[in-house]
Design goal:
The chain folds into 2 domains: 145 residues, Aspartate Aminotransferase, domain 1 (Alpha-Beta Complex); 219 residues, Aspartate Aminotransferase, domain 2, CATH 3.40.640.10. It starts with 11 loop residues before the first helix and ends with a helix. It is 41% helix and 14% strand. It contains 16 helices and 14 strands. It is α/β, with parallel strands linked by helices. The protein binds pyridoxal-5'-phosphate. The site of pyridoxal-5'-phosphate (PLP) has 14 residues, from loops.
């Protein structure tokens, strides 16, 4: 008999038995598909390494050195970038790097390019650094293509930073080499810094490739801050671990200076799992999980198309689907109906920018059982959506 996939095992009951924001923000009868937090178990080898670290009582102050070395090696192997360990900084995930990059690149009043739609903490980073967002529109009807001409038309003498999210949340796209080259040329020609969030680099389907912007050429590498974290593929967002790296030592020193006394790297458990994650030793888990998630994706697309009127961007990377609900209803209204009548919580599309209005973001990193139950519930409210639209 074929073994049940570990990714197929999560049930509503089993997920409710774990503490955590996603399953406990709302009432227990709600299925939460809002936060980008997978429902999957931990990779067993990873769990063993964490257990060993606890048994060793590795909870005293720990050096960053070993983790920086393995991250530097992983950046070379996977991202095809030469960044010495001395220029890799351990971070509490990717979010602090958004702030730090703006602090390095900008003064208050400068302009920062953000995409619309985009993962909303980028907007927050713009806000807290008192810079001004300039929206680079990604259009659903263009398949969320990253149009370099459109980007170029937004550049002014005040543009100091471009935020790139690749693979992109919530568009679900991995940028092509050509698209990255378009960004690189514009940044280099205008001497603009770029912060690239590559958090989703290993969550991809159907042989879609990931390319790192800084690997395009040396000129763009010297303007780029690259960041990644363990959270999405390894089901460890609660550990808050990641890195930033740059080939430009002057820039790295500036980032270190700005962050000194404020950012404190990450915890020892994350440092303990860095070698096994960064070595590629347990990449079988990535392959199995992506394979399973591609099946969930296909299931969601099929069922949504059968039950109602949705425009669904092709999900080639990330586990976040961003369909437009074609009922003429705002994301706020859709959210209220889905929560109250369907007992399903999704993310409102409009928090990702004006282009997200009328969309809802659906987490697909769950079991087919949980997903089918959520889809059954959504199907039941389609007549209501039709009536209200
Ligand atoms: C694009 C992107 N960047 C950053 C984050 C935050 O991740 P972390 O908590 O690991 O910093 C997320 C979380 O979903 C994300 O989707």
């Amino acid at each position: 008999m074929p073994k049940t996939s570990p990714f197929d095992k999560p049930t509503i009951e089993s997920r409710l038995s774990v503490r955590g924001t996603k399953w406990h923000r709302d009432a227990e009868d709600i299925i939460p598909l809002w936060l980008a937090d997978p429902d999957y178990p931990l990779c067993p080898e990873l769990k063993d390494v964490m257990r060993e670290a606890i048994e060793e009582e590795y909870t005293i102050y720990g050096s960053d050195r070993d983790a920086r070395e393995v991250m530097s090696a992983k950046i070379k192997r996977f991202n095809k970038l030469d960044i010495p360990a001395d220029q890799v900084m351990l971070t509490q995930g990717v979010i602090p790097v958004m702030w730090l990059s703006a602090m390095h690149a900008c003064r208050p009043g400068d302009e920062v390019i953000v995409t619309d739609p985009m993962y909303f903490p980028f907007f927050k980073a713009v806000d807290v650094t008192q810079t001004n967002p300039v929206y680079w529109k990604l259009k659903l009807e263009e398949g969320y293509k990253f149009d370099a001409d459109r980007l170029n038309s937004l550049i002014t003498p005040k543009t100091r930073l471009i935020y790139v999210c690749n693979p992109h949340n919530p568009a679900g796209r991995a940028m092509t080499k050509e698209e990255l080259k378009g960004v690189a040329d514009i940044a280099v020609d205008n001497d603009i810094y770029v912060m690239v969030d590559e958090l989703w680099e290993d969550v991809r389907y159907d042989d879609v490739k990931h390319y790192s912007l800084a690997a395009i050429n040396d000129e763009i590498a010297d303007l780029t801050i690259t960041s990644w974290g363990f959270s999405k593929m390894w089901s460890v967002p609660g550990l808050q671990a990641g890195y930033l790296g740059c080939t430009n030592k002057v820039m790295f020193d500036s980032l270190t200076k700005i962050s000194g006394g404020i950012l404190r790297g990450t915890n020892n458990i994350s440092k303990a799992i860095a070698p096994i994650i960064c070595s590629g030793e347990i990449d079988y888990w990535i392959n199995d999980m992506n394979k399973y998630m591609a099946e969930v994706r296909d299931l969601v697309v099929k069922r949504l198309n059968e039950m109602g009127d949705f425009t669904i961007p092709h999900l080639e990377a990330t586990y976040l689907m961003f369909p437009r609900f074609n009922y003429g209803l705002s994301s706020d209204i859709l959210d209220k109906i889905l929560l109250k009548e369907a007992k399903v919580s999704l993310n409102k599309g409009n928090i990702f920018g004006p282009e997200g209005e009328g969309h809802m973001r659906i987490l697909t990193a769950t079991s087919k059982g949980i997903m089918n139950e959520a889809l059954d519930r959504i199907e039941k409210v389609i007549p209501l959506l039709e009536k209200m639209g």
